[in-house]
Design brief:
Length: 355
């Protein structure tokens, strides 16, 4: 029972780390899957396979080598020099992603709560700074609460969506975009999110340490991410193309379900953005602390200030410009870690679609 409880915690942190601003708001799902029409569900299945396979591999290897940060893992996989360069690139990318997370929180405040974009940035920064003083235990605790609520509400959203007689129009719509763009999309999405999740999955694997708990957690978490992707895709597809105009399209859908459900979902969107921001800033703080030996609280404050300044560009612009570019940068990392033989005897096999 203790191992199962640990596995579920691992799965919830895995899901909570991936389900950030782009995912929870619906922008990411639309960008990588829904806009490709009837191909969307098949692309999601491909991404889910990679989440299970590579997510497990990262955590198992981190536990095996007792990595303190993602740079330790990259040096082990790609050598001292190669690992350092990859970690430099990831540091830049993670800073951009965290800026998107903070901007997403600002958009929730302005678009859904009418409280002002800058207010959202400042409130989120302060809450993140205070929570991070408690370390990995705080990340485990907050995901244990938020992720199950998000899963339940997403399933409910799909149920309500399926009652709409026009639900399957976009799902049956022919894809007018390039087939190459469509089938590259799940690889970009998985590569981007998995490389970014290193900041949390590496210390998580080292902290948990138990191989069975980590492997089971990777399967539960990876499949959970796939289920949430499908839920978001079906909900968005039923309202395409009109819903694409919103910065927070899932919030627009929740508004149709009534006042109380809208407020609940807006809170969940914000909390999912917040959990990912907290997890990523934690990983970056660990990484910079190893390099600089500076005070963790000071590093956290500097990182949040950078995100605040970058967040002035706005959520929609940052996500659309940065995420596809970061996905391309992450493809190389996904290929290298996928072919690495360090875990030949221990790593899980890629999920079999026929199974």
């Amino acid at each position: 029972m203790k191992q199962w409880a640990m596995s579920i915690q691992v799965a919830l942190v895995f899901i909570g780390t991936v389900v950030g601003a782009g995912f929870a708001s619906g922008r990411e799902v639309m960008q990588f899957f829904t806009r490709f029409g009837y191909w969307g569900p098949y692309l999601i299945i491909v991404s889910t396979m990679f989440f299970v396979w590579i997510g497990a591999k990262v955590m198992l290897l981190s536990a095996e080598i007792k990595a303190k940060s993602y740079e330790d893992l990259n040096k082990h996989l790609f050598g001292e020099r190669g690992g350092r360069w990859i970690s430099h690139i990831m540091l830049f990318v993670l800073l951009g992603v965290n800026a998107v997370m903070l901007a997403g929180a600002g958009s929730v405040f302005s678009e859904q709560l009418n409280l002002g974009y800058q207010t959202g940035l400042i409130v989120t920064m302060f809450a993140c700074f205070m929570l991070l003083r408690k370390g990995m235990n705080a990340i485990l605790a907050i995901n244990t609460i938020v992720v199950p609520m998000m899963i339940i509400f997403s399933i409910f959203l799909v149920y309500k969506t399926l009652q709409n007689p026009l639900t399957d129009q976009w799902l049956r719509a022919p894809n007018e975009l390039s087939p190459w763009a469509a089938w590259l999309s799940p690889f970009l999405y998985a590569a981007f999110n998995l490389s970014m999740s290193q900041a949390v999955l590496v210390p998580l694997g080292s902290t948990i340490g138990d191989r069975r708990s980590l492997l089971r957690g990777a399967w539960i978490g990876g499949i959970g991410i796939g289920v949430l992707l499908l839920a978001g895709h079906f909900a968005l597809a039923s309202r395409m193309p009109g819903i694409a105009q919103f910065d927070i399209p899932m919030g627009g859908i929740a508004r149709e379900l009534g006042t109380w459900l809208h407020w609940v979902y807006v809170l969940l969107i914000f909390m999912e953005i917040f959990t990912t921001l907290v997890a990523d800033i934690y990983g970056l703080t660990l990484q910079l602390h190893v390099r600089t030996k500076a005070s963790p609280w000071m590093l956290t404050a500097v990182l949040l200030l950078f995100c605040f300044l970058a967040g002035q560009f706005g959520f929609g612009k940052l996500l659309s410009a940065l995420y596809p570019m970061f996905g391309m940068l992450s493809l190389g990392w996904l290929f290298l870690i996928g072919r690495d033989r360090a875990l030949t005897n221990n790593s899980p096999k890629p999920p079999n679609l026929q199974a």
